[in-house]
Design goal:
The protein is mainly beta. The protein has two helices and 16 strands.
């Protein structure tokens, strides 16, 4: 499915200029968007009467912070309390670049859209501050985790990281309304579709192997409902089994020329 959608996008992008080459990029608009992919900046240009190209970047500059209770952990016969652990979580990591091709079947505002979102693949980024649980000489050298659960290690600052990974290149298909490039000075657009993510895989990092040596790779550790002994009620596996992420956004574009 992923390869097929990429081929369709490439075919649409390459065929439109040949069909409407004399009308390509004779106008351009710049816009901002707000939606489930975050806050975005997009440039748009027509590729003939029925095609439109958009390219830009979006990110979600907001994070969720809360203290969580994870119970106790036993380390070498010593019980450590894992309550009131500060955690921070965000979506889409450093953001995604995007290339979208709008296809207008008629003269109205309705359109189909195919495209590609490209980023680091970090759908969810989370970090837990364990610096108050571990001694400084234990950072990066001691695994810690709730009893019966997975073991986490920290970097040299006492921070443990957990990420939800998806495809770094995510095909997108959807529908929409409005022309990003129009005769009016300002236009409003709406997009509704799905990005194909391949399903989120949750992973943490094992700093024990590289002993904090940046020249050595850091191993990743898969976190599943099974490794959590189903303490998550199976939610990690359920969410990871969903191969798409819904996308919805509003855009406001301003005509440059």
């Amino acid at each position: 499915m992923k390869k097929l959608l990429v081929l369709l996008l490439a075919a649409a992008t390459l065929s439109a200029p040949r069909a409407f080459g004399q009308d390509m990029f004779n106008h351009m608009s710049l816009g901002v968007s707000l939606g489930l992919d975050g806050v975005g900046l997009e440039a748009a240009a027509p590729m003939g009467d029925h095609f439109q190209l958009r390219a830009g970047y979006s990110l979600l500059p907001f994070s969720y912070k809360k203290e969580f209770d994870f119970g106790n952990a036993n380390l070498g016969g010593t019980t450590r309390n894992l309550n009131d652990i500060p955690m921070t979580a965000g979506l889409w990591g450093p953001g995604n670049a995007k290339v979208l091709v709008d296809i207008y079947p008629g003269d109205g505002p309705f359109r189909f859209t195919a495209g590609l979102y490209v980023g680091t693949g970090k759908f969810v980024t989370a970090q837990a501050d364990l610096s108050k649980v571990l001694a400084r000489d234990e950072y990066g050298t001691l695994g810690i985790g709730p009893e019966g659960g997975p073991t986490f290690t920290t970097d040299k600052n006492g921070i443990a990281y957990v990420n939800g990974k998806v495809w770094s290149a995510m095909p997108y298909v959807g529908i929409g309304f409005g022309h990003a490039v129009a005769d009016d000075l300002c236009t409003v657009t709406f997009d509704l579709g799905v990005a194909f993510t391949g399903g989120a895989k949750v992973e943490s990092y094992n700093y024990l192997k590289n002993t904090l040596d940046p020249s050595k790779p850091v191993d990743t550790i898969a976190i599943t409902s099974k490794t959590l002994q189903n303490k998550d009620n199976g939610w990690i596996d359920k969410i990871g089994g969903i191969p798409v992420f819904p996308m919805m956004k509003l855009g406001v574009f301003f005509k440059l020329f």
